[in-house]
Design goal:
The structure is a single chain. By secondary structure, the chain is of the alpha+beta class. It has helices at about 20-35, 50-55, 60-65, 85-95, 140-155, 170-185, 195-200, 215-220, 230-245, 295, 310-320, 340-355, 370-380, 390-395, 415-420, and strands spanning about 40, 45, 65-70, 75-80, 105-115, 125-135, 160-165, 250-255, 265-275, 285-290, 305-310, 335, 360, 385, 395-400, 405-410. The longest helix is centred in the N-terminal third of the chain and has 18 residues, at about 20-35. The chain starts with 17 loop residues before the first helix and ends with a helix. Bound molecules: adenosine-5'-triphosphate (ATP) and magnesium ion. Adenosine-5'-triphosphate binds next to strand 6, strand 10, strand 11 and helix 11.
């Protein structure tokens, strides 16, 4: 029989690497605590219709990338391709708009699924960290959301970042821009890919996001959304930019930045890595405002804004900048037990040490003393604790500090206090 292999576009995260993931998760949660975002956990699958309605029928995600299946009850379900739709569904379903604390500030951390062509930075199962602030349309919350992402990257040690922002305006601005886009592309649409030809009818804005036709001459001369913003949209965008400037967050405005999902309006942003050798896909984080989305999934008309970033791309960016995250925790105390009696004694001792808060380990392989020392070194143990027949008889253990080489006889009943003092 042939070996069974991991599915294409997925990865095992093994000990040695998983510590990086845990560190990032811890940092993200810490920052969310400071910013007062609370965790929300929604199901891994949702009704397919949720994504069709929210992400949008005309998007790549819904048209090509979803893992959709029928369950045994004949319902169409989809493994979540992104987080916002489910959070907004839950917000509406649990009537969070009625909560005393507003806006509702939520974060999530978990796997997403997209049927994409696997390549560097593109997986079929990947982990996103994202936040949503729902219930406020004050430009300061846009700046807060952007700053939280920047803060996470900064705290993890990334320096070579570029924040790109744009405004997609409100629906009347978008309508005017849409008409201008159709007029611009229609005469030569035959020169564009099949997807773009379809987009002209369904969602012409998304032509600007096409990866195949990005170098076409007409892309460069396409009408800019910024020329179609009405006064309200323009002044909203100005305020967001002012907050960012006041917070000393550098950004560039790119009027061709349109996000892949249908539900965005007003503020849209992406954070890219500018590290050399990062590769072709440089977007680390994408987000924007989605006034109207709550209503689309059946809730009241409440404004929202959020972002999502993947841990896979964050790790590539850390690699590209040569940033090392703190590594696995070393063992505080490794017990080397010699002889049956000492072996038996080591079990309750391990239990006691662990209860006292130490990370403690012993040999389970029946190794000789020298090999047990080797094992302790391999685990970067701070101390080894040696007990043999002799020591037991005298009521002592030998504790050796592996860093300094210093060695002391310690009465068995003083082991914990000794190790506590040693740190
Ligand atoms: P792209 O243009 O690269 O396909 P997207 O617009 O589809 O990105 P979003 O839906 O905005 O991406 O997701 C937010 C973030 O999630 C992206 O900025 C990226 O960091 C990450 N991401 C998206 N798709 C994948 C994937 N297949 N594998 C790993 N990370 C991903
Ligand atoms: Mg994509």
């Amino acid at each position: 029989m042939s070996n069974i292999q991991i599915p294409r576009g997925t990865q095992d995260i093994l000990p040695g690497v998983v510590e990086k993931w845990q560190f990032i998760e811890k940092k993200a949660k810490e920052i969310c605590g400071k910013f007062q975002y609370k965790e929300i956990r929604t199901p891994i699958f949702e009704q397919t219709e949720l994504f069709q309605r929210s992400v949008g029928d005309t998007t790549d995600i819904v048209q090509k990338e979803m893992y959709t299946f029928e369950d045994r009850g004949g319902r169409s379900l989809t493994l979540r391709p992104e987080g916002t739709a489910a959070v907004v569904r839950s917000y509406a379903e649990n009537k969070m708009y009625g909560q005393a604390v507003q806006p509702v500030k939520l974060y999530y951390f978990g796997p997403m699924f997209r049927y994409e062509r696997p390549q560097a930075g593109r997986y079929r199962q990947f982990v996103q960290f994202g936040i949503e602030a729902i219930g406020s349309d004050d430009p300061s919350i846009d700046a807060e959301v952007i700053s939280l992402a920047m803060e996470l990257y900064r705290e993890l040690g990334l320096k070579k970042l570029r924040l790109v922002i744009n405004s997609l305006g409100d629906s009347s601005s978008r309508k005017a821009h849409r008409d201008a886009l159709i007029a611009h592309f229609k005469p030569s649409i035959g020169e564009f890919c099949g997807d773009c030809q379809q987009r002209l009818e369904t969602n012409p804005l998304r032509i600007l996001d096409c990866k195949k036709d990005r170098d076409h001459e007409l892309m460069k001369t396409a009408p800019s959304i910024l020329d179609y913003l009405n006064d309200e949209s323009r002044s909203y965008f100005e305020k967001v930019k002012k907050h960012l400037t006041d917070m000393q967050i550098d950004f560039v405005v790119d009027p061709t930045l349109v996000r892949g999902l249908d539900y965005y309006n007003h503020t849209a942003f992406e954070i890219m890595s500018e590290a050399e050798g990062f590769g072709a896909i440089t977007t680390l984080c994408g987000g924007g405002r989605y006034n109207g989305l709550v209503q689309d999934v059946g809730g009241p008309d409440q404004p929202g804004i959020g972002f999502a970033l993947s841990i896979e791309r964050l790790l590539s960016a850390l690699d590209a900048e040569g940033v090392e995250l703190p590594h696995e925790e070393a063992v505080d105390c490794y017990i080397i037990a010699l002889g049956d009696e000492a072996m038996d004694y080591s079990m309750p001792l391990l239990q006691q040490l662990r209860r006292e808060g130490f990370s403690a380990e012993k040999d389970y392989m029946g190794r000789k003393m020298k090999a047990q020392f080797k094992a302790a070194e391999r685990l970067h143990a701070q101390h080894v604790l040696i007990i043999g027949e002799d020591e037991l008889e005298k009521g002592l253990a030998v504790i050796k500090d592996l860093q300094t080489g210093e060695q002391k006889d310690v009465p068995l009943e003083n082991i914990v206090s000794f190790l506590k003092r040693e740190g």
